[in-house]
């Protein structure tokens, strides 16, 4: 598991509060995490190899196939369990979290939604193919309704190719993550499992490849400009909301244990 974004760069990457790449090989049985809780965040799950079984306290019981998207809005508290079933002995998935806006949305009741891969737009260009997971790309809009303005793209670029995009002017925070291959951005070279933080610019985002093609993610968002207090599993704009979310998670865990007796 490769996790990015921590307390040191939380404010720099506002509204993004977690990026996680989970990958395992030679798996012969299901793998995952038992019930645990979150609050104050939107959590996007994106399995790309294997199937993901998701159960949560909002009532969502769903199995995601490779390429499907699941969004869990934790609000004032949610508990969930995720289990991955391998494909040819491998599992791989990505998790992206964003903070929820301070106020009503941050402490609203939890909810979940999911969209199958065939419903997600794929934009094919001369050098690239771009899957629009969240937001919009060159006129193609994801069907996923999200809490805040975010663009989340899964991109394949051919060898000696170029990919360019003019982000929304309000989405000034972002990063690029390389899944495979190599990419060149603003004179910098990125390799697999490397994240590059983007700086605000009025110029289009341009990504190039050399002799090796690449698969990468681009995430862009509009900063919330609010305090971001993290407990590791939850993020809130105030200590009061963090306390309320923590208490609710404990209550949900206790209720889960009681129901299992």
From TrEMBL:
<dbReference type="InterPro" id="IPR012093">
    <property type="entry name" value="Pirin"/>
</dbReference>
<dbReference type="InterPro" id="IPR014710">
    <property type="entry name" value="RmlC-like_jellyroll"/>
</dbReference>
<dbReference type="InterPro" id="IPR003829">
    <property type="entry name" value="Pirin_N_dom"/>
</dbReference>
<protein>
    <recommendedName>
        <fullName>Pirin N-terminal domain-containing protein</fullName>
    </recommendedName>
</protein>
<feature type="domain" description="Pirin N-terminal">
    <location>
        <begin position="7"/>
        <end position="97"/>
    </location>
</feature>
<comment type="similarity">
    <text>Belongs to the pirin family.</text>
</comment>
<dbReference type="Pfam" id="PF02678">
    <property type="entry name" value="Pirin"/>
</dbReference>
<dbReference type="InterPro" id="IPR011051">
    <property type="entry name" value="RmlC_Cupin_sf"/>
</dbReference>
């Amino acid at each position: 598991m490769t996790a990015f974004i921590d307390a040191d760069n939380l404010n720099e990457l506002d509204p993004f509060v977690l990026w996680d790449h989970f990958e395992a090989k030679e798996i012969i049985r299901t793998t995952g995490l038992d019930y645990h809780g979150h609050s104050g965040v939107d959590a996007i799950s994106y399995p790309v190899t294997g199937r993901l079984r998701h159960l949560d306290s909002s009532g969502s019981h769903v199995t995601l196939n490779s390429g499907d998207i699941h969004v869990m809005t934790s609000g004032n508290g949610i508990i969930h369990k995720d289990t991955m079933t391998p494909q040819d002995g491998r599992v791989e998935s990505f998790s992206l979290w964003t903070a929820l806006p301070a106020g009503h949305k941050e402490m609203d009741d939890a909810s979940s939604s999911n969209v199958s891969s065939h419903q997600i737009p794929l934009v094919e260009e001369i050098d690239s193919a771009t899957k629009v997971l969240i937001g919009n790309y060159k006129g193609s809009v994801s069907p996923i309704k999200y809490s805040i303005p975010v663009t989340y793209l899964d991109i394949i670029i051919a060898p000696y190719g170029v990919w360019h995009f003019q982000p929304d002017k309000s989405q000034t925070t972002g990063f690029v993550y390389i899944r495979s291959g190599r990419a060149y951005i603003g004179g910098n070279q990125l390799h697999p499992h490397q994240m590059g933080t983007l700086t605000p610019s009025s110029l289009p985002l341009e990504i190039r490849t050399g002799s090796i093609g690449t698969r990468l993610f681009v995430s862009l968002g509009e900063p919330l400009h609010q305090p971001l207090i993290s407990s590791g599993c939850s993020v809130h704009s105030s200590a009061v909301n963090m306390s309320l979310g923590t208490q609710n998670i404990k209550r949900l865990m206790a209720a889960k244990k009681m129901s299992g007796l």
